[in-house]
From TrEMBL:
Species assigned in the record: Blastomonas marina
Pfam family, one: DUF4136
This protein's UniProt keywords: Signal
Signal peptide positions (record): 1-27
Signal in keyword set: yes
Domain DUF4136: 57-192
Protein name: DUF4136 domain-containing protein
Record carries keyword Signal: yes
């Protein structure tokens, strides 16, 4: 079972609005959906290792801003980020894709509902986008997904996805700024209401 995150009517209207003012910098609200184990809010927050998710196509330096942003947010929540030897692991995925006029996105990143069946899918690496031409500003949707697992049992304790759209002339288009915006929204009010989709301005 997979959750549907994008509301087609809303995203289409947003895309049209962006097209109408393509020369002005724009960064939309961040849409966030999260799932968590029932007792996660009361569980102790120990050592956690932040890594690129297995099978993630984007790796190396391109992923570092996202790993850094997630690490900072987890530390602020009382976790102790470590390099190896953690009791939990946070697996991170990220992707970018052109936001089309009909609200569709070339490289969706989806997040599953809990347990070992929870999966992500991303088709385009960080930094990939399509130039729309005609002097218009490119509009790209940037997404990040994080899954927190128990290191020993591999049980999924929490998972979430965050995304927002921005034009290429907006400050939030820059990868480091985008990563900070996504991580801040994703972990706001952690662990959040399981299954709820919210928008963070």
């Amino acid at each position: 079972m997979f959750a549907t995150f994008r509301r087609p009517a809303l995203i289409a209207l947003s895309a049209l609005a962006l097209s109408a003012c393509a020369t002005a910098p724009y960064a939309g609200p961040t849409e966030v959906t999260r799932f968590s184990a029932p007792d996660l809010a009361e569980a102790p927050r120990g050592r956690i290792e932040v890594v690129v998710a297995p099978g993630e196509e984007t790796s190396g330096l391109a992923m570092q801003p996202y790993l850094d942003a997630v690490t900072r947010e987890l530390a602020s929540l009382g976790y102790a980020p470590v390099s190896g030897g953690g009791t939990q692991v946070a697996e991170v995925r990220a992707g970018r894709g052109e936001l089309l006029a009909d609200g569709s996105r070339r490289s969706p990143v989806s997040v599953g509902v809990g347990g070992s069946t929870g999966t992500y899918g991303s088709g385009v690496g960080v930094g990939i986008g399509i130039n729309l031409g005609g002097g218009e500003r490119r509009t790209v949707d940037t997404s990040m997904a994080v899954m927190i697992r128990d290191m020993d049992t591999r049980e999924v304790l929490w998972e979430g996805r965050a995304s927002f759209a921005a034009t290429e002339n907006a400050d939030e288009f820059e990868v480091a700024n985008a990563a900070d915006k996504l991580a801040s929204a994703l972990f706001a009010g952690f662990p959040g209401n399981s299954g709820e989709t919210i928008e963070v301005e």
